[in-house]
């Protein structure tokens, strides 16, 4: 199958730009809605509405592609052959609901199982992180350099709250070897931090749509993306992943305990 | 002693505006410096230089005031009589060093032991949170409303990383009762979140200069600021504090264990 990564990139950026405009308006609506039940219904609606819009745009532009997405409007994808889009309409829902910032929208694109393109919008900052191995990495129109390959001791690490608090997989030992621990609560926002060197590692249990775009971008930036037991990443299931500089991921893998 | 809260507020805003401009330039310098040792020396210099500047401006404008500050250029303050300024030149040093965002500069002002004025600049966002009980609360020139008095279950909580990971004071039980756990790594940044309702509680071990400005602003916003054993806050020592909506602080105090 012949695909044009540059063309897909332009499509993704335009799409997420539109999604960003809508979600910023939604965030303001969300803030002004009175009761808790109404607020929650509203968020579910925003999520579904966004996914429906994104999926229909993808189907129109790439009729042969299949879609894996969070809210159920995607396809029943059984294998990774051909062009597969992963869609997370609102990532960091709790941040969207509770703080109206630090949430994202993400699309990852794979071709015959290989990472091709990724795009993540930090909605409230209106910054789109996008690109891939073939075309390089950008924030909006600006090309960015790969982050430095820092060791664990020199960087901040972000670990999902339940995992860190319960010390699952001995992760607190990894945290202790780092410069410090942060919890921002949205995979998409944290991928942005990794791509700009603000954090050096993210560890969490992620669904395919949580991981897809970030994996493309972080691998294109020279970082490592591994499942916690060092098995190959499987894009059709949820798994515990470590994403970070290659030095940090090596150190983390020798520190975590999987049994 | 007769003091004019509006006049002090104007002084603080002008001062932090200047500090912000300098620190944004410093952050860029910091990013470009090569070796780790040089980078650390640079940060210490930024911290000291900022404090010296702030303290000398305060002394010039308020010659009778005393100053409690982090880096040692303040006075040996023994009691809270008269006008006392608390200065934290760079709050969230690790964020400044590692990510060049989410750090702050803070000044709190007390008169005969009573909270009077506070000002916190989110340096990279160029937002100054300021005001006090007498004059109300502002972000830059815009007056802000008090955040809603939400219960624990409806909001995100920020707890210092070492305290949360080690479950000190049974704090993980407080976290479990909330909507979610976040770690942003700077008291000043988190006070901004509390003032805008993005988070409903912050718990940490804070020095006087970490707490002073945030206490003034949060109390002026109708929130509660208590020491963990529910004793009166002592502004001349470090202590474990809980800051949050009054509902959340009540719930937290019945959940934490101090022995």
Biggest sheet layout of chain A: 7 strands, mixed
Strand content of chain A: 25-35%
Low-confidence stretches of chain A: none
The CA-CA distance between the termini of chain A, in Å, is 41 Å
Structural category of chain A: alpha+beta
Rg of Cα set of chain A: 18 Å
Text of the CATH class of the largest domain in chain A: Alpha Beta
Shape of chain A: globular
Secondary structure tally: strands of chain A: 12
The SSE string of chain A, one letter per element, is HHEEHEEEEEEHHEHEHEEH
What CATH architecture label of the largest domain in chain A applies?
Answer: 2-Layer Sandwich
* Average pLDDT metric of chain A: 94
Largest interface: A-B, 28 and 28 residues
Helix count of chain A equals: 8
Strand order of the largest sheet of chain A: 1-2-3-4-5-6-7
User: CATH homologous superfamily of the largest domain in chain A - what is it?
Assistant: Fructose-1,6-Bisphosphatase, subunit A, domain 1
The domain tally of chain A reads 2
Task: Examine the coordinates and then state which fold CATH places here, giving the name of the CATH topology of the largest domain in chain A.
Answer: Fructose-1,6-Bisphosphatase, Chain A, domain 1
**What level of helicity do the residues of chain A show?**
25-40%
Protein name (chains A, B): Inositol monophosphatase family protein
Pfam families (chains A, B): Inositol_P
GO molecular function (chains A, B): inositol monophosphate 1-phosphatase activity; metal ion binding
Cofactor (chains A, B): Mg(2+)
């Amino acid at each position: 199958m012949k695909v044009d990564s540059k063309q897909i990139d332009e499509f993704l950026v335009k799409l997420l730009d539109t999604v960003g405009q809508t979600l910023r308006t939604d965030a303001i609506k969300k803030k002004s809605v009175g009761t808790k039940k109404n607020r929650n219904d509203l968020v579910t609606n925003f999520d579904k509405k966004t996914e429906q819009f994104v999926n229909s745009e993808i189907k129109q532009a790439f009729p042969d592609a299949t879609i894996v997405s969070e809210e159920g409007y995607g396809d029943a994808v059984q294998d990774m052959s051909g062009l597969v889009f992963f869609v997370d309409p609102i990532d960091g829902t709790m941040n969207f609901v509770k703080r109206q910032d630090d949430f994202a929208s993400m699309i990852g694109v794979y071709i015959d199982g290989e990472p091709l393109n990724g795009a993540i919008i930090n909605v409230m900052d209106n910054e789109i992180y996008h690109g891939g191995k073939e075309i390089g990495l950008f924030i909006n129109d600006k090309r960015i350099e790969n982050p430095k390959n820092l060791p664990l001791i020199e960087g901040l690490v972000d670990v999902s709250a339940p995992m860190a608090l319960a010390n699952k997989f001995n992760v607190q030992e990894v945290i202790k070897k780092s410069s410090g621990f942060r919890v921002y609560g949205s995979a998409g926002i944290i991928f942005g931090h990794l791509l700009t060197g603000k954090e050096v590692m993210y560890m969490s249990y992620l669904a395919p749509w949580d991981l897809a775009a970030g994996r493309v971008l972080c691998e294109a930036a020279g970082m490592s993306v591994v499942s916690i037991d060092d098995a190959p990443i499987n894009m059709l299931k949820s798994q515990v992943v470590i994403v970070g500089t290659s030095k940090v991921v090596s150190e983390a893998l020798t520190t975590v305990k999987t049994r």
